[in-house]
Write a structure and sequence with these properties.
The chain is an alpha/beta fold. 30% of the residues lie in helices and 34% in strands. It has one domain: 3-Layer(aba) Sandwich (Rossmann fold), CATH 3.40.50. It starts with a helix and ends with a helix.
């Protein structure tokens, strides 16, 4: 009887200590209308380099200036780097109404007019705090490999709550704002877009 009681205790204990399921998040892109690939400005987005601490499937939050937290069960569905490029590209493509747009490393077999590359210095935030996107970016020409625009953007977006879904929404808004900054510079560079 004692053995049966001990066995039952361990079975119940193992049922109580199950790990929670992982949750997966992705940055949503822009809703885009269908545009012919032959239409519009030729644009290639990427590569953008990311710091090593963000090159992981786990969502990273900032606890203090020098301390981060790596969430065990809150993860990116793919990678933050690829989501960043995809969302940046989809918003720029929609804003500029171009079908001639690709994101690194995709090659759609067209010669772009401009290539947007950069270095992400920081792209993290805190729950119930804010997300910070600090990025150096360059717009260059594909044919002559010359830099036409070089900027640094520091974008802060408030996180609307203590949930990871609110943090991911703030990440998305930060990329949308970066897209708007790049779009404005491209329109200055090429009036009539």
């Amino acid at each position: 009887m004692r053995t049966l009681t001990v066995l039952l205790f361990f079975v119940l204990l193992s049922g109580c200590s199950s790990t929670p399921p992982s949750k997966f998040y992705s940055l949503p892109g822009a809703n885009t209308a269908s545009v012919s690939v032959s239409d519009g400005l030729g644009l290639r987005i990427g590569p953008f380099s990311f710091p090593d601490y963000l090159r992981r499937p786990n969502i990273v939050t900032r606890l203090t200036t020098g301390m981060i937290d790596v969430a065990e069960f809150e993860r990116w569905a793919g990678s933050l780097e690829n989501d960043f490029l995809r969302v940046l590209g989809s918003h720029l493509g929609a804003a500029l109404a171009t079908g001639r747009m690709s994101t690194y490393p995709a090659d759609l077999r067209f010669e772009p007019d401009y290539i947007v590359t950069g270095e992400v210095v920081t792209f993290d935030g805190s729950l119930s705090g804010e997300v910070t996107l600090d990025v150096h970016w360059v717009v260059g020409t594909a044919k002559h490999d010359e830099v036409r625009i070089a900027r640094r953007s520091v974008i802060r977006e408030s996180v609307g709550g203590a949930k990871y879904s609110a943090l991911v929404e703030a990440h998305t808004r930060a990329v949308e704002r970066l897209s708007a900054e790049i779009e404005a510079e491209l329109r200055r560079l090429k009036p009539g877009l």
